[in-house]
Amino acid sequence: MNRKVGIFLLILFLIVAGLISYRLLKNREKQSISEKNEGSRRAETKVYGMVVTGKPFSDFLSLTGGIEANEVVDLRAEMSGLVENLNFEEGSNVGTGQVLLKINDSELRAQLEQAQTRSNLAQENERRARLLLEKEAISQEEYEIASADYRTAKSQIQLIQAQLNKTLVKAPFAGTIGLRSISKGSYITPTTPIAQLVNLSRIKLQFSIPEKYAVKVRIGEQVRFTVQGSEEIFYAKIYAIEPLIEESTRTLRVRAIAENANNKLIPGSFANVTFPLETISDGLLVPTEALIPIQNGKKLFLKKNGKAKEILVETGGRTDSVVLISRGIADGDTVLTSGVMSLRDGSPVKVTLR
Questions:
Q1: Do residues 43 and 37 touch, judged by C-beta distance below 8 A?
Q2: Residue 67 contacts by C-beta under 8 Å, 6 or more apart in sequence?
Q3: End of a domain among 277, 295, 326?
Q4: Same structural domain, 311 and 268
Q5: CA–CA separation, 131 vs 348, rounded Å?
Q6: Nearest 5 degrees, angle CA 183-CA 186-CA 192?
Q7: Band of the pLDDT at 174, cuts 50, 70, 90?
Q8: Contact status, residue 269 vs residue 286, Cβ threshold 8 Å
Q9: Same domain membership, residue 115 and residue 53
Q10: pLDDT of residue 181
């Protein structure tokens, strides 16, 4: 009996020992595979890079602005009446003071004729009263009444003449007439829009500067801008600055004036404005593809001791191909410029300099 128990325990021991040996063998195989994978991950990643050196750079802001007419007015009549004459063509150029429209004034002219007759009579009465006063045939009071009647009659003529002047709509400045909203024979009132008059010889460029750069704005400073549909670069000179910063946007409104001799600039268009800040003699410039946007800013990778080093940076002005780095890197650093999206901080890298 004891012999059988011993044989059973021996067999059980051998089975357990075999299971343990099998488990240890499998663990060693897994560890070997893991070490191979780790070695594979630690293989150097081939990337391109560049050594950053200070270069001259003209820093600037890229802003969006709008083009406005130098002068624009909605033409309206000062009094109501029927349009008797239209003296302009849509889209035509007009001069300052040119008569654009005439309202029927027949009733006012009849009133003027009547007032002139009364004035003539009052003038004659005043003359006679003055002669009688000299002969002491009437009192001073009677003469003053006649004189007042004459002055009242003259004032009435002036009033009607002023009303007659309001039957004419004149151009307040030289410019181009837009599309009209009325026709000959229309009955118009002071609220009826006639057309727009726009001065296009010069245009106003309006844009807003972020609050942090507001102190850099100067009257007389030149900015350049472009418009959609044209590759031509235009220039404007700042002539007015809003005295207050807008609280909602934290920006400062600025206006500049630009010549528009060939009417290439159309009011209402958007403009891409380049506002100069300062010229930096040793700016650190990196290609735009080297920058990686992240939640709290931008980052790039430097080569440090054969590995990729993740660096948070602050940027300044930019062009189509390069970005100015204002903080985060130093002259002589090697910046990784391509293949950076797959990199991790501390990854081994093999850099080919460009």
A1: no
A2: 203, 204, 205, 206, 227, 265, 266, 267, 268, 269, 270, 271
A3: 277
A4: no
A5: 119
A6: 95
A7: very high
A8: no
A9: no
A10: 93
Q: Tens digit of pLDDT for each residue in 60-88?
A: 888 999 999 999 999 999 999 999 999 99
CA distances from 280 to 37, 59, 248, 327 (A): 48, 7, 32, 14
Q: What is the pLDDT of residues 38-64, one digit of tens each?
A: 544 456 788 889 999 988 887 788 899
Using pLDDT thresholds of 50, 70 and 90, give the confidence band for residue 32.
Answer: low
Identify the DSSP state of 326: E
Do 325 and 54 touch, CB atoms closer than 8 A? no
Q: What is the DSSP string of 216-250?
A: G--TT-EEEEEETT----EEEEEEEE-SS-BTTTT
Domain residue limits at 179: 77-101+169-193
Signed CA dihedral, 296, 297, 301, 304: sign only:
negative
Q: Within this chain, do residues 182 and 269 fall inside the same structural domain, yes or no?
A: no
Rounded CA-CA distance 285/322 in Å is 6
DSSP string for 169-214: EE-SSSEEE---S--TT-EE-TTS--EEEEEEEEEEEEEEEEGGGG
Is residue 238 domain-shared with residue 288, that is, in the same domain? no
Distance CA 178, CA 74 (A): 10
Q: Which residues pair with 138 in a beta bridge?
A: none
Identify whether residues 245 and 204 lie together within a single domain. Answer: yes
